[in-house]
Amino acid sequence: MTRALFIIDVQNDFTEGGALAVEGGSAVAAGVSALLAAHPDAYDAVFASRDWHDPDSDNAGHFALSGEPDFTGTWPVHCVAGTPGAEYHPSLLLPDTTIHIRKGQGRPGYSIFDGVSEGGEKTGELLIANGVTDIDIVGLATDHCVRASGLDALEHGQHLRVLTDLVAGVAPQSSDAALAELAHAGAVLVTSDVVD
């Protein structure tokens, strides 16, 4: 068994004070760092995704540049490539070996599987190359990018655990629904104290 950790979109724009802030986002950043510090050998690979949207377009309709966003398919401008909002939250301390995935480059991209590494490799290819069979997932937001990434991981045949104390969502009802959907699809919902 080769286990990876997926850290989804723990970025300044998705934490308190950001363009699309999720309540509890900063606590998730600190909690993920504490998990990695306490269990440095728990994961054979660590993947961290970031929204990395193009600065000079609406990213195929993802940004509501005219009119109000609907917060389901259109959003306020956020996580623009190279801006402070797109950077990881300062409390998120990642291992040097982290595989960084950028997604949403010129188009909507909710799942980590929509992105590519700095070397241009797709997430699914990197899982195969690293022999990953099991994934723990944490990050932001439960009801959007964590949900999409988790469902795609299951579609790719991974055994998935959602560390429910290290995710935060936009709204309680939609976050609960996302967790239920993930569990129905085959994910195991646990807390981070199972990590050893």
UniProtKB/TrEMBL annotation:
Keyword flag Metal-binding: yes
Isochorismatase-like domain boundaries: 4-193
UniProtKB keywords: Hydrolase, Metal-binding, Pyridine nucleotide biosynthesis
One family name in Pfam for this protein: Isochorismatase
Molecular functions per Gene Ontology: metal ion binding; nicotinamidase activity
Pathway: Cofactor biosynthesis; nicotinate biosynthesis; nicotinate from nicotinamide: step 1/1
Entry EC number(s): 3.5.1.19
Keyword Hydrolase annotated: yes
Superkingdom of origin: Bacteria
GO BP terms in the entry: pyridine nucleotide biosynthetic process
PANTHER family found in the cross-reference section: LD05707P (PTHR11080:SF2), PYRAZINAMIDASE/NICOTINAMIDASE (PTHR11080)
Protein family according to the UniProt entry: Belongs to the isochorismatase family.
Name of the protein: nicotinamidase
Organism annotation: Cryobacterium shii
